[in-house]
Write a structure and sequence with these properties.
- The chain has 451 residues and is an alpha/beta fold.
- It has a single domain, classed as Alpha-Beta Barrel (TIM Barrel), CATH 3.20.20.140.
- It has 13 helices and 17 strands.
- Strands 1, 2, 3, 4, 5, 14, 15, 16 and 17 form a nine-stranded mixed beta sheet that branches. Strands 6-7-8-9-10-11-12-13 form an eight-stranded parallel beta sheet.
- A hairpin with a 2-residue loop joins strand 1 and strand 2.
- Helix 6 crosses helix 8 and helix 8 runs parallel beside helix 9.
- The longest helix has 18 residues.
- It starts with a strand and ends in a 16-residue tail after the last strand.
- The structure holds zinc ion (ZN).
Length: 451
């Protein structure tokens, strides 16, 4: 064995067991009851060991960072926060996605030259040409096809160009022809209603919260609309970042019609409210809402409707957010995703550690067809592992985080539960809060058969 992590409490969706993990090269060779001897041995001292977290929702480079620097910094932040695979949603302008991603010197090459952790990709579908490329993208390992339903008109931040229901319907048809694991991802918000609220609030000159401009029903309506398109096309749908308390019931209803529809959420929609986060800095889509909405989403996780988790890391800096109406949407979250979930979820008893591993590691690997290489601790899997100290308490400060943005929405929060070691494919990349890996170690990970 090249590496052994002994004396572990191994957490998997099925339960927690004591064990020892032997690693050969980049993969797990054995999981055993007795301690393993190896060239390099680490004593986990009875701490929890889990499969590396997978961030299913990340926008590296958003909104205007140089992409090489963005991969370097945000993958370092990922490693510090226990994320071993980033699933990056690349948003590129009209034009061939295959060329813009896989052409020489383009996105794939840039990420491989700069990332500390592994990266899989998802694509944003904006045009007819993009729709035609869906099968080719799937062959290259991209299975998640994102539809940014609300970004049109003055809300379409470049390089996005608005899409309409025609693109959604035709895209869904093409995805259905490909079959799983290719699936549609929808950002469910109705922007036309937002514009009317915006007009009204501007005319009244009233200070409002972002959530006032896009009430819960604005998020619910496109779930039904896309659920209907999914029903008539047979397209599997993944709803990204659910925020509304009514959401789990809506999804149950749509599933009742035989639609394959699943749900992701993010830590900020479980713990953030208009009262505890900054009104301008935390301007994101969909918006930060209320404690009741938070509770509805926690319940959705516990009852198995909300099954996946991402950070929606969209690392705007304070300079992108000088004024409420013009502020660019998005905030950093990649480094704090797992710690917030350990602190507010596991340590506060809202969900079990096993449930967290299920939604943050296993289910994300499953949805993006990375199983059994990622998201699981078993012989043959990539040695993507974390040692977690559930008692380690840190007061979150932007100056101590590693992401490219200059702020965190959770400034000053006391967070209990942090990874103390991150291993990617058999190499330690973070130990005791120090980066030990090299930029460029991480690889592009194709999803699906291409893996
Ligand atoms: Zn997003």
């Amino acid at each position: 064995m090249d590496f052994a992590i002994n004396n572990c409490r191994i957490v998997s969706p099925d339960g927690t067991t004591e064990g020892n993990i032997g690693i050969k090269g980049e993969t797990i060779a054995t999981v055993s009851n007795s301690p393993i001897s190896a060239e390099n041995e680490i004593d986990a001292q009875g701490k929890h060991v889990m499969p590396g977290a997978i961030d299913a929702h990340c926008h590296v480079g958003w909104p205007d960072w140089p992409i090489d620097e963005a991969y370097r910094k945000d993958s370092e932040a990922a490693a510090m926060g226990g994320i071993t695979t980033i699933i990056d949603r690349v948003t590129l302008p009209p034009g061939s996605l295959v060329d813009q991603i896989f052409g020489k010197g383009n996105r794939r090459d840039i990420l491989e030259a700069n990332t500390h952790v592994d990266v899989a990709l998802q694509a944003c579908i904006l045009t007819n040409e993009h729709i035609e490329e869906i099968p080719a993208l799937a062959k290259k390992g991209i299975v998640g096809m994102k539809f940014y339903i609300p970004y049109k008109g003055t809300e379409a931040v470049p390089p996005m160009v608005g899409i309409d229901d025609g693109i959604v319907y035709m895209g869904f048809k093409k995805i259905a022809e490909c079959g799983l694991p290719v699936h549609a991802q929808i950002h469910a918000e109705n922007i036309e209603i937002f514009y009317k609220f915006k007009e009204k609030f501007l005319a009244e000159g009233k200070e409002v919260f972002w959530a006032d401009t896009r009430p819960n029903f604005c998020e619910i309506e496109p779930m039904y609309r896309c659920g209907y398109f999914a029903k008539i096309t047979g397209c599997p749908v993944y709803v990204v970042h659910m925020t509304v308390k009514e959401g789990p019931d809506v999804i149950r209803e749509i599933r009742g019609q035989g639609v394959n529809i699943i749900v992701e959420t993010c830590p900020q929609y479980l713990v953030g409210t208009t009262e505890n986060l900054d009104r301008v800095l935390s301007k994101v889509n969909p918006p930060i809402r209320t404690k009741e909405d938070n509770e509805g989403i926690w319940e959705g996780i516990r009852n198995g409707i909300v099954t996946n988790m991402g950070s929606d890391h969209a690392p705007c800096a304070t300079t992108h957010k000088e004024e409420f109406w013009s502020a660019v949407v998005g905030m950093a979250g990649i480094e704090t995703m797992l710690p917030i979930m350990l602190s507010e979820g596991v340590n506060k008893g809202r969900i079990s550690f096993e449930k967290l591993v299920e939604i943050i590691s296993y289910n994300n690997a499953k949805q993006f067809a990375l199983l059994p290489r990622k998201g699981i601790i078993c012989p043959g899997a990539d040695a993507d592992l974390l040692i977690v100290d559930l008692d380690k308490t840190v007061t979150v400060k932007a100056e101590n985080l590693h992401h490219i943005s200059d702020f965190t929405p959770f400034e000053g929060w006391e967070v209990k539960g942090w990874p103390t070691l991150t291993m990617v494919r058999g190499s330690v990349v973070m130990q005791d809060g120090q980066m030990v890996g090299e930029a460029g170690y991480g690889k592009y990970v194709p999803c699906g058969e291409a893996y």
